[in-house]
Structures are given as structure tokens and as C-alpha cells.
Amino acid sequence: MRRTRELLFQTDTLKLELLNTPINQLDLKFEGTIFAQAIPVVREELRRAGIRKLKPVFYISTGYGCIAGQPIISLGFYDFDPLLKDLNEEFRGWRYSDADIFDLLRHECGHAFCYAYKLYRRRDFRELFDVRGHFFNTYPDKDEYHYNPWSRDYVNPNGDHYAQKHPDEDFAETFTVWLTPRSNWRRVYRHYPVALNKLRFTERIVRELGGCPPLVTLDESWMIEPYQEVKLTVAQFMKAKPSRYYRRATGYVDPSLKEMFRAQPQRLTRRELFSRFMRAEAFIKAHKQQLISRTSHWVGVDSTVVFDLLDKLVTRAKALNLWVEKAQEEKKLVELTSYVTTLCTNYKHTGQYLT
Question: How many CB atoms lie under 10 A from the CB of residue 232?
């Protein structure tokens, strides 16, 4: 990679940009992530296990879970980008491996199966999993739970005794063990009679219900916190203090762009918006060739120095959802030209865009 792009797109800069980006402005996709591989694999595992009518819905949110009463599964946005995974580990203290992701999906599909077929209303389920009172209302508010580390009544695939948190988690963990290929659950839990009965119950209930339509009607309006609606920045969500990244970032242009352009105007119809304003990245692109030729000529730098800087400005203006008023195009072009010229002059004399 040439030096200009190393400066503008180095890791510390990219992490700082992510931390200061609102979650709803992150461009997250399933394609190219572990989920693009894991979700079809787990769906095929469900099909082979005999669960043919249940079709869980997956969406990107602020964490992992299954909507209570619905086969709708949320996935943590922080696992949809390698740098977000790094930041999550740095500021929140954990990182899921690919194997963890597969197990999380199986676990949440266990919840989805339970909810879709309302197992919590069945007497045999409630007796075996010791359900007392309202299934959902008795769930702990916090992630803290007491457990017996020597109990043989529960599966414990990850060593965290999570099945002992609540009957809901007990079934989901049991389902995970039962569904996981080559888990050898009959042998592994042969000396755990209650846990083994739960695994056998799971096998039996899937055989009974797996080919039947779910008892609940899928309602995607139940989705909680889809990432597109979360206005917190990544730093706010992770309670991160990114001060050290400011010192190390060599291509952080966000403050200058926010000063030069403006946030998206509110309370306008789409027609009004595009008649009076244009996206900042489109504005920069419209003047890109002119800026490259003139800046490289007058400053005396290679055109790639200007090209890479403008590429960075376009990328960040889009990510920050910045706009420019059409009535101020001429003024903003002067500001943009001055800014680009200054940074390219810095690079010519110091080898750095930002000094």
C-alpha cells in the first residue's frame, strides 16, 4: 500500500472513526462475515434434525438474543466487522470466536423453537425444566445468577453453568448440545441422569413438533433495537474513551468535515431535501477531477496524493451522512479547495497530511 493510503486509512484512524460513528450509520452487511457461513449451516442442522417448518429471522442489533415469544434472533453488531470485534474486546473485555458464533446461533435457535411451539405451556416441559410461575416474567433482570458447580442436572457445554440461570436458558443450552454435530451427548452426559433426560426430551419433542407449523405468527415488528435505529456512537455504546487514538490517528478528518458540511436537515420531505440540498460525498465527487488536477499542479504533488485524500473525504462524508446546501455550493467549493490544498501542502513538506 502506498504511503498516502497508509496515512489516511491506518488502523488507529479507522478505529477512531468507528468509535465516533453513530451505530445507525454503520454500513453493516451479512455478506463477507462469519454469519454468512454460520446461518445457512445452522439452518441446515435444524433441517437435518427434523425441524422443517420453523424459519427463524435474524437481524443485526446491539447484542445476541431471541425476542421473547417470537422466533426472531438478534445478533451483535460488533461482530460484523473485524475492527469492531477488536474494539469490543478492548473496551468490553470479550471476543467471540467463529466457533462461539455457531454455538450462539444454535442456542438462540433453541429459544426460537421453545417460543414458536410454546413449550413453556406444556406440563412435561415445565416439570422437567422446573418452570415455576410465569415463564418470561420470572427471568432475572441482571446477568448475574447463582449456580451449583457440582450439579448434574444441567448440561454445561461452555463451563459457565449458564443453563442454571433460568429454565429458558436451561432448554436453550440443552438444545445447543443436542443440535451440535458430533457432540456425543449420550456418552458425555451418561452419568448426568437429569441432564440426559432433558436431552432425550429435546429429541422427542423435536420428533413430535419439528414437522408442524409454529404455533405463533411471525411478527417482525417485534424486533428490538435494530442497529439502524440506534443513535448512540460506538464509543458511547461501548463506554469507550478513545483519547489515545486521537494521538495516533494520522488520517482523522471527521472534525473538519463536520465543520465544513452539515448534518442531514430534518422535517423536510424527500423532494424538499433533494431540491435544496445534496449529499456531501456527491458534492466532493462532482469536483474531484478538477481538484486533483489543480491541486497537484499548484502544490506540486503527485496526483495520487490528492486522489487518496479525496477518497478519504468521500468515504467519511458518506459515513457521517453530511450534506451541503445547494445555495452555498460556490462557498463550500472554496472551503473544500482550501482544505485539500492545505493538507496536500502539509504532505509535501512533512510527509503527513495532519500536523
Answer: 12
